[in-house]
Amino acid sequence: MHVSLRGITVDFGNLRAVDKVSLEANAGEIHAVVGENGAGKSTIMSVLYGSNTDFSGKILCNGKKVSWSSPKDAIKAGIGMVHQHFMLVGNLTVLENIALGNESINQFGFIKFNTIRANILGIVSRYKIHIDLDELVDNLSVAQRQIVEIIKLLYRESMVLILDEPTAVLTPNERAIFFQSLKNFKAENKTIILITHKIDEVMDIADHVTVLRNGKLISSSQLEITNKEKISQEIVGEEIPRLNIKRGAYESKKILDVKDLIIKTNFTTKQAINFSINTGEIIGIAGVSGNGQTELVETLIGIRRASNGEINLLDKNVINANTQTRRMMGISFVPQDRQRDGLALGASVWENACITKVNDKKFSWGSFLRKKNMKAFSRSLIQEFNIKVNGPDALVRTMSGGNMQKLVVARELSSQCPLIIVENPTWGIDIGSIAFIHQKIMDIKSAGVAILLVSNELDEITSLSDGAFVMYEGTLSKRISKGKNFRELIGRHMLSGFNTYYSPTGSSPNE
Amino acid sequence: MSKINKAKTAGIVVETLATVLSISLIIFFLLYLADANFSEAIRGFIKSSIGGRKNAYLFTTFSKMALITGMAIAALIAFRAGLFNIGGEGQLVVGGLVSAFVGLSVADFGLLGIFLALASGMAAGAVWALLSGFLTIYMGVPLLVGSLLLNYPARYISSYLVSHPLRDVNSGLPQTFLLPKSVWLPYFQGTRLDVGIILIFLVYLFILVISQKTKYGYYSKSMGISFSFAKISGLQTKKIVFQTLALSGAIAGLVGSIAVLGIHHRFTDGMLVQPLYAWTGIIAALMVNLNVWSIPLAGFFFAAISTGAAGMERIAQVPKEIATIIQAIIILFVVGKLGSLGGASIPSGDSDHD
User: Fold this and answer.
1) What's the CA gap between A281 and A451, in Å, rounded?
2) Is residue B81 part of a domain?
3) Does residue B33 fall inside a structural domain?
4) Which helix (H) or strand (E) holds A60?
5) Is the ipTM of this complex over 0.95?
6) Tens digits of per-residue pLDDT, B246-304?
7) Structural domains in chain A?
8) Does A327 sit within 8 Å of B353, measured CB to CB?
9) Are B229 and A341 an interchain contact pair (Cβ–Cβ within 8 Å)?
10) What is the pLDDT of residues A464-497, one digit of tens each?
C-alpha cells in the first residue's frame, strides 16, 4: 500500500513537534525514518497510526485521502505499529496477547482458539520464530516481547508496518533473522516504515531514508544517492564528537570482588560466579537479554537475595546488606528500565535527581529537606549533562527518552561512588545522547571509578570495556580480554554458550 | 491568544450552566416524585447547610466537616504513598471505641483524661492499620483486601461490646454509658461546635508540613509513584509502609475519638459507620486528586451537602431516601466536573513523545 503524509504539523501546547513534514512510502519498500529523540519521528508516526488526531495536513492511502478517529480505523485500513514501549498484557499468554482485539469467534460467541493457534503457528514457522505460545508475557525477556508484538502485526495481516526502534533489544543473530523477515514482507509487497537511531541498519536494509531534525524534514531520498556520513550529519546537525579517553592519576586497587556467588535464577544450572573489578576499569557483561544479567545485577545491588557467596566491596562483604547500605558504602546503579526503576515519572526533576542523596548534610537537616540546595544541585546536573528540560520543577514525564536517561545517569554518576553498575545505559536513545553518556562513563573511568557495564549492545561493550564476560543461561564465561578477537569471541559466546569456546577446533581462551 | 482564552472561558461558562441545569432538572424531577414543595425544599436545603438560628446549622456542618476532612486526610496520606488503605472505617471505629472506654475510666484526671482518651484512640487506630500492613508484608494479603476485611471485625466487635458486656442497659440502646463531662471536648463559646475541628486543623497543618518539607514526605511520595523506583533508589520501603499505615490509622482513630468525646459523648453502635464518614473521606481525597492543600474545601463541600439533605427532609418533608439520592447526584456531578477539569491538564497516555 502506498501511503503519503502531506504537510503534517503537530503542536504540543506551544511546542511545534512536527513542522510541515511530508513523506511518501511505497509498497514493497523499506522506508527508514531517522532522527534524534525529539526530532518528531514517533509523533508523525502516531499521526499515521491514528493515535494522534490533533494535527493539520493530509494522509493519503493509495492516493485516497483518509482520516482516522482512532488507531482502530488505521488498523482496519491495514496499518500496524509496534511501539518502542510494548503494548502487551503481562498476565495473558503469548497466544492471548496476539489474538487480543482480533479474536475470531464461532457461531456461539466462543473464541476459536484452535484456529487462532493454527494461524499463529503457521506464521511462526514461516518466519522461523521460536516462541512458546502458552508462556505468560510477564515471563518473557524484552527481546521475546518484541517478537510477540511483531507476530501480532503479522497475524492481523497489516499492509503497512510501522516499527519503532525494533532492533534495540535484539542480538546480532536475532537481528539477522528479523531483517530476513522484513525482506520477506517487502517481497510480499508490504510497506515497511522503520524508525531507528542506527545508521548501520539503515545502510543494511533500507531502500529510502528520511531524516528529521527538530520537527523539520531535513532530507528524503533513495539510499543509493546518499551515504552514511551525510545521514549522520543531517541527523545531528553537526559533527559527532569522538570518544575522548584519558588516563587519570589514581591508586590501583580492587574495588569489587565477587566470590563463588550463586544467584537465584530460573535456569537449572547453578554455577558459581567469580569476577573482580579494579579502579579505573570497565568490565563488560555481554549476552542476549534474559540470560540472568538482570538477576546478577539485582543481586549485586541488594534487591535479590543470593543463595551463596561473597560480594566484597572495598574488602567488605556486603552480601547481607540492604540496598540503602550498599549505596551508602559505595555502589551506584543505572537501571535498564528508566521509566519503571530509574525514575518516578510523575515527580519533578529535582525529586528524581536527589532521591539517593537525601541523607547528605547538604540536602537535609534532621528530618527536614533543604529544597533550595536540592534544586540548585539539580540545576547544576541539568547544565553539566546538557539535559533539555524546563528546570528542576518540571515533571520528568514531559521529558524525551534521551533526556530521561541523561537524568538517571547524571544522578548516579554524580554519586562519587567507587563502583558504578550500569545496565543498558543507552537503550532506545539518540546518537547524540549515546555519545554523551559514553563520554561521561569514560570520564569517571579516568577518575578511577570501577564500572560494571551490562549491555545487550555488542558495540557498546567492545568500544568501552577493558575486559568482558558473557552471560549465558545464568552462568558467566571466562574473562575475555580486550584484544584482536574481542568482538568475535563475545559474539560467538552470546549465541551458542560456551561449548564452541572449549571445542578443540575453536580458538583458545583469550585470557 | 486572547481570542482563544475568551472562547475557552465561554466554553467553561456554558458547560457549568449546563451542569447546573441538569442537576436542577433531576432534583425537580425527584422532588416532583416525592410530591414536595420545590421552593420550600431548596430553601430548606440551603438554610440547613449554612444557615439556622445563630448559624446553628453552619456549626453542625463544621462539626461534620471536621470528621470528613480527618478521614480524607487519613486516606490521602496512605494513597499518596501508593498504599490503598481502605480500612479507614475499621480504624475509625476502633479509635472511637477505645476512646470511649478510656474516657469512662479517666473521669477524675481533668485535661490529662482528655489527652489520654485521644491518645489511646489514635494508638488503637494505628494498631488496626498496622495489622493490615502486617498481613500485606508478611502474609501476602493485598492491602486493598486486608484493610477492607478488617473493617468487619472492628464493626462487629464494637457492636458486640456495646450491646452486651459494656452496655448502658437503662438507655435502651446498644451504647456505652455517657462519658463524664470532664472528658468532653470543650465547645466554642455559645455554640454546639466542639474544639475537635481545631485538632483536625492541626493534623492538616502537620500533614502539609511533613508531605512538603520532610524526608518522609519525599520518600512516601516517591514510593507512591513507583515502588520499584523507591526500592532501587535504596529507600527502606518496608519502614515507609509501616510508618504510613500507622500515621493513616492514627488519624482515623483520632477522628473516632473526636466523634465520641466531642459530639456524641458515648459510643453508640453504628454511629461511625452509618454516616459513611470513612468512605466519604476517600471520595473527598480522590476528588481533589490527592492534593493536600484543598482537602478542607472538599470536606466542607461534603459536610454541607449532607446537612443540607437532612434539612430538606426536616423542613420540606422530603423523604430521607429522596434527600440521599439528591445528595448522591450532586456529588456525582461535581466529582465528574472536577474529574474532567483535572483530566485536561494530565497528558494523555503516551508519555514518550519522540
Assistant:
1) 6
2) yes
3) no
4) strand A56-61
5) no
6) 999 999 999 999 999 999 999 999 999 988 999 999 988 988 888 899 899 989 988 98
7) 3-236 (3.40.50.300), 254-346+420-502 (3.40.50.300)
8) no
9) yes
10) 999 999 998 888 988 998 888 888 888 778 766 6
